[in-house]
Amino acid sequence: MPRSLVLERKGELSLRDIPLDMDMGPTEVRIRVHTVGICGSDVHYYTHGKIGPFVVNEPMVLGHEASGVVIEVGARVRHLKAGDRVCMEPGIPDPASRAAKLGIYNVDPAVTFWATPPVHGCLTPQVVHPAAYTYKLPDNVSFAEGAMVEPFAIGMQAALRARIQPGDVGMVLGAGPIGMMTALAALAGGCAKVLVADLAQPKLDIIGAYPGIETINIRDIPAADAIAKATEGWGADVVFECSGAAPAVLSLPQLVRPGGTAVLVGMPVDPVPMDIVGLQAKELRLETVFRYANVYDRAIALIGAGKVDLKPLISLSMPFEDSIAAFERAAEGRETDVKMQIEMPR
Ligand SMILES: [Zn+2]
What we know:
alpha/beta, Quinone Oxidoreductase, Chain A, domain 1, Rossmann fold, 2 domains, seven-stranded mixed β-sheet, six-stranded parallel β-sheet, globular, binds zinc ion, oxidoreductase, SDH-like, metal-binding, oxidoreductase activity, acting on the CH-OH group of donors, NAD or NADP as acceptor
């Protein structure tokens, strides 16, 4: 039985042996896990025991942002071999489903996703995973960066949904990890510049260090005033709402230019009312994002080409033996921590 990081119940973690299904089918690969990022969702399950309808009712292994090394491949696997360095997409759809056939497998009702109850995650020494959702890393992309592909994929999905045109002015509300990933994906996707708004200055300082990013501290100036100033009153071509905060959602019609686009990335805890007429009066296009589909290859290509550097967003790496302490620190939500990672023992 593999020693894993187990969420026993709300507020209680342990490092212990737990029985996991390790059978490998002909289209699957066995992977030795190397690095796992701690996600806000992992922390939320730890502190709250649930996210929306997903409730932790029995012990569950946490973690879904992983990279590793292939150690065995199924008989029908062609594109991977033992020794390959890889990262894994944590959501597995039913390939025969209607959603999968449409290419929108992220919204397949049958999707299983690591560390979403009752599915175990990847903070465990080895995982068995479909080869089709396992991606080879270029030699110049580290395991730490490989484990960043999962959160970056959400930014990629947001940038794709926005249908950015070269030279667009982008705006991101919320400088959490996903806001930062979205800002970088929007830049890589063709935005001339991206303004990132938040009220936590340490977060703004981290993302503001990237060329092409300008920051707005909404304690000093309202986001609407800042974007008006930056665009001579016209508004942003694309605004990505990544905070999940109701006032930010409500402000979208004031921030987007006429005919522009608002992308809803952040997930408000409660339903948020919307200024419909505000949207209509500018004929804004509204897009939503749920996880991602078919973006891993693109994300890895951008990182491998050096067009996106996620390394400055990795705040701290801790050994697996200290993973409970790592989760406690993540739960503190320090404003200087972006992404914390756990390294599995060799
Ligand atoms: Zn995540």
